[in-house]
Fold this sequence. Notes:
By secondary structure, the chain is α/β, with parallel strands linked by helices.
Amino acid sequence: MMPIFLCLLFVFPQGPSKEELRQAQKLVLTNSEPSVKKGTELCANLNCVSSMEILLRRFKGAQPHYRDIVWKGIVRFTDPYSREMIASELKKNKKSASMRQWAAEALGIYADATYGSVLMKAARDKDVGVRRAVAKSLGNLGLKESEKVLVKFLQDKDFIVRGNAVESLLKLGFSSGKEALVKGLQDPDGGTRAALLSVVPKYAEKETASLAIVGLRDEDWRVRLQAIRNLLGCEPSVETMDALIPAIARVRPLVRIPLLSGIRDWTGMKFHKAEDWERWWSANRDTFLLEKGKGTEGGSQETVATYNGLRVDSDHVAFLMDISSSMDDRTSKGERKRELALQELKKTLESLPETTKFNVYAYSSNITVWEKEAQPVNPKNIKSVLKFVQKTKARGNKNIWGALLAVLGDPTIDTVFLLSSGEPEVGLYVHHNRVVDHLVDWNRFRKMVVHGVAYSKSKWNQDQIRHISEGTGGSFMIVD
Length: 480
């Protein structure tokens, strides 16, 4: 028979040793990113209250780099007592709305119904970021009691809260979800309509084509873009082609790109102009066999302006210009980065058609926007914006998340060119894992493409910008 003390070891396994915790604390609280990463990994593996305390101590600090690293460890904990510490932050942390929001996000990732009551109580939080996180996280818990809270969220003033609530109702299979979806597709906010249209194939598959055809007539470009994506995901049919062909002439350039790519794939035809497609479809509609994979991408392409070697396939574009102190450095060719960036902006703007609307956001630690709204490209505005950029002084650090958040506030912009001399040093989020996660979450409503340009020799810095671009389906260029 096994001795009692050995039995107890199996039933109540030993916790981490003092030496393990001491080592974890030393690593996490140091001022070295590799050490913080190593310590975070150790804390997550120890998976106990003491190691969670160590991570929270660093997470609540002022250094965003370390906060973003530590987050990866916090969401890995399975120990219920450690998770309770996160729930406590949501319940009791009155000083930091951001901390409450992140706690709500973490509880959603844990997907543990134990914390459902904590999340539901937080639905009354005055901070919109907390309510957004709660509305999304409740969809992961599977609690019937959450239906009432989510239905109430449908009346929230914030468009993301409303959209998250509808998706959570659908995800949980509540009968109220389908009704909320129908009403949500008529939401006053175009971003909410677009976000909800994107989930139709998953939760209302049979209505995908019919709802997308209605969406093609929406006044908001984001809804039309999502409608096209939904239709191109369906099996080719005469009905969908009847809706898509007329749309070629009505949609903006960024939306036209996937539309043309899709119908070329269905038909094998390589037309570019709307009138050519209309003429061909009129002559072949009753006899042509549509099928996926029939053609390859190609056809004539319009000549467009470029920015640092990247195509500008948009007529509603924003340029995020790095004006941090590192822009005073020189490239390997001896050019001052700041001057090179200004020359490239000038060349691009002078090449854009006057039908294009644009804006410029100059960012370092703070963000300054040229105009409140995007303006048409013309000689007067080009002169004005170049003067605006020239007057800014290269100083401070880079707040890339702040710059992205600023341009996310303009729903008319569909394409962003993010120029950076390196990784961000300041901001709510700095590491690409957190920047991309929140940008992708926002982009359910915004549908914005971010192209990245790195004025940096460092592969680490380049990769930060590359990940941000890839997260939105954008392209990336290195300029050194």
